[in-house]
From TrEMBL:
SMART domains cross-referenced by the UniProt entry: AAA
InterPro entries referenced in this protein's UniProt entry, alphabetically: AAA+_ATPase, ABC1_TM_dom, ABC1_TM_sf, ABC_transporter-like_ATP-bd, ABC_transporter-like_CS, P-loop_NTPase, Type_1_exporter
Cellular localisation: Cell membrane
Domain ABC transporter: 353-588
The protein, known as: ABC transporter ATP-binding protein/permease
Organism: Fusicatenibacter faecihominis
Pfam families per record: ABC_membrane, ABC_tran
Topology relative to the membrane: Multi-pass membrane protein
Domain of life where this protein originates: Bacteria
Limits of the ABC transmembrane type-1 domain: 28-318
Length: 595
């Protein structure tokens, strides 16, 4: 089979080992304990063999029983004590495996969450939410299972096998070899099984992710489903994903079922060899009855690890497929991150924004969406961006907080290119109300105060007033303590927009960016908002995307985009005089009498 190349800096086991930092010592104790308690399993058959030889079937059995009765009791006591000791060790070992596996799980999960938080926009458009959730839950659990169970089983099986093999060889090497000659066949079968089952596990992880993505998209998009009465279609879609996952699970189990009869047959040959060859040795006097009893009592210690190996290999391949998914996230690096020499800028910006010959194309897009854009907004000014849908307005403003990077040209704030600023400092001073409003399932107060947890309720109310949200909030049953559902369920589109505006204002940004934020509010309310935005009690440069002339007419500059180019720019009056796109727009929206 073709070996896959490892795309990560470490192998899966090295990576796991790295994440066991701090508990490696205790894990070793656990592994050593596993070896010890498995070796202790041999004590029972060993002592029973001794008892049989000395007191039951040996030549001097009757005599030994009367003269060495104390030895008889001692052997029985030793058996009991070793069994008790074994129990104690097993208990301790279980605790250790559980502790270490949970510690690794906790650490990796936190690390991944941290990683996901710091990814750029391209990452979020590449990975689906359901897929990320699967990696953080199901796939991670397969890694915990590796630490808590698979490694333990490997050690258990091998130590048991090795201890039994050594004991057999030591007791009677001829008999031992007759039994052990079977083992290589099992190893070979397990190797063939591994090659067949590995791709199945990779497929299984994919199917699980698809099923979870289907459920997640359906639940978060339930309103659309209801609006189009597509419940049956969605149920069917999930049923298909569920069935796919189920069938792949069954197919994976079937792979083992194909190999299982061979392993089982070979393992079951052992008692036959024991009966046949052992019987002959016994008759010939090459094996004592006690040795025969010890061999019979321990034959499982050779056979069971062989049977277990299929299971272990299966679980190992599950780990391998899951860890690949997890490591992909673990080693993913955002393209947009702080440069090493990024400037610290804890203070407010003056708010000068410059676009210098900026062109931009999405990584996954075929054509540039912005071409050679240049304009400047001075501190405290308001610039309005207009243009028909899809012309690149959102793409343009996304370059200011560096959600994306221009393919050519530069975006500067206060004369510094944005890529030379620390992302945290840059974004902390930019208040953004996005086109798709996303609120958290929290109180209205919590949502407004999201960007600044230390903000007082008086200020929350003030910013709600600025965004003309205070009236409708006051009418809600619990006012600012009203909990809004996931994504703001329970609020109207315009109400959500106003809360999102209050949230953007609440950080007292040096630069305020509004992406169609008042599109769903009525003209009267919008007028009030316009007025409040002029009266803010902190200096602020505003970039406002809007379609309505009433929103843009008072801006210091209006930039009109068309197919990613600046079509025209200037003040309301200047653009009217040009009689271009803007002029036509005004004519359309206000009627000819305005002109
Ligand atoms: P409206 O919000 O509808 O008024 O449009 P807009 O002017 O804000 O357009 P936007 O900047 O969102 O999109 C400009 C172009 O970029 C459109 O042709 C989109 O199809 C494209 N686009 C937007 N987002 C992405 C993205 O994430 N990937 C790719 N490949 N293309 C995108
Ligand atoms: Mg847009």
């Amino acid at each position: 089979m073709k070996q896959e190349t490892n795309p990560f800096p470490k192998t899966k086991l090295q990576w796991l080992w790295e994440n066991m930092k701090g508990c490696r010592g205790i894990y070793f104790v656990g592994m050593a304990g596993t070896v010890v308690y498995n070796i202790l399993q041999l004590t029972v058959p060993y002592f029973s063999g001794k008892i049989v030889d000395l007191f039951l079937t040996g030549e001097n059995a009757r005599e030994n029983l009367s003269t060495h009765r104390d030895l008889f009791y001692q052997l029985i006591l030793a058996m009991v004590l070793f069994t008790l000791l074994r129990c104690v060790i097993v208990y301790g070992v279980c605790m250790i495996y559980e502790h270490v596996s949970q510690t690794v799980l906790y650490r990796v999960r936190n690390y991944l969450y941290d990683k996901i938080q710091r990814q750029d926009m391209t990452f979020y458009s590449t990975y689906r939410t359901g897929d990320l959730m699967t990696r953080l839950t199901g796939d991670l659990d397969a890694i915990r299972h590796m630490v808590a169970w698979i490694i333990r089983m490997v050690i258990e099986s091998f130590s048991l096998f090795a201890a039994a093999a050594i004991f057999f060889l030591y007791t009677n090497w001829k008999m031992a070899l007759c039994l052990l000659v079977i083992a290589p066949f099992v190893f070979w079968i397990i190797y063939l099984f591994r090659n067949k089952v590995a791709p199945m596990h990779a497929l299984l992880r994919e199917k699980l992710s698809q099923m979870n993505t289907c459920a997640q998209e359906n639940i978060s998009g339930n309103r659309v489903v209801k609006a189009f009465a597509r419940e049956d279609y969605e149920i069917e879609k999930f049923d298909k994903a569920n069935r796919d996952f189920c069938e792949t699970n069954k197919a994976t189990a079937m792979v083992w079922l194909k190999f299982f009869p061979y392993v089982e047959t070979i393992a079951n040959l052992m008692p036959l060899v024991m009966l046949g060859v052992g019987g002959v040795f016994l008759i010939k006097g090459q094996l004592t009855m006690g040795e025969y009893v010890a061999f019979s009592g321990l034959i499982w210690a050779i056979a069971n690890p062989m049977r277990q190996m299929g299971n272990i290999m299966n679980e190992f391949q599950r780990f391998s497929a899951a860890s690949r998914k997890v490591m992909e996230l673990y080693y993913s690096e955002p393209k947009i991150k702080d440069h090493e020499d990024a400037k610290e800028h804890p203070d407010r910006f003056d708010g000068k924004i410059e676009f210098k010959n900026v062109s931009f194309q999405y990584e996954d897009g075929d054509l540039p969406v912005l071409h050679n854009i240049s304009f400047t907004v001075n501190p405290g000014e308001t610039v309005a961006i207009m243009g028909e849908t899809g012309c690149g307005k959102t793409s343009l403003i996304n370059l200011i907080p560096r959600f994306y990077e221009p393919t050519e040209g530069k975006v500067l704030i206060d004369g510094t290119p944005v890529e030379n600023l620390r992302l945290h400092d840059l974004r902390r001073h930019i208040g953004l109300a996005t086109q798709d409003v996303l609120l958290y399932s929290d109180t209205i107060e919590g949502n407004i105060a999201y960007g600044d947890g230390s903000i007082k309720i008086n200020d929350v109310v003030k910013f709600a007033r600025y965004s003309s949200a205070s009236d409708f909030i006051a009418k809600m049953p619990e006012g600012y303590d009203t909990i809004v559902g996931e994504r703001g369920v329970g609020l109207s589109g315009g109400q959500k927009q106003r809360i999102s505006l209050a949230r953007a204002l609440a950080i007292r940004p040096s630069i305020l960016i509004l992406d169609d934020t008042t599109s769903a509010v009525d003209m009267e309310t919008e007028k009030q908002i316009q007025h409040s935005l002029k009266e803010l009690d902190f200096p602020c440069t505003k970039v406002i995307i809007a379609q309505r002339i009433s929103t843009t007419r008072d801006a210091d500059r209006i930039v009109v985009l068309r197919d990613g180019y600046i079509e025209e720019s200037g003040t309301h009056e200047e653009l009217l005089a040009k009689k271009g796109y803007y002029y036509e727009l005004v004519k359309l929206q206000t009627g000819l009498d305005e002109l």
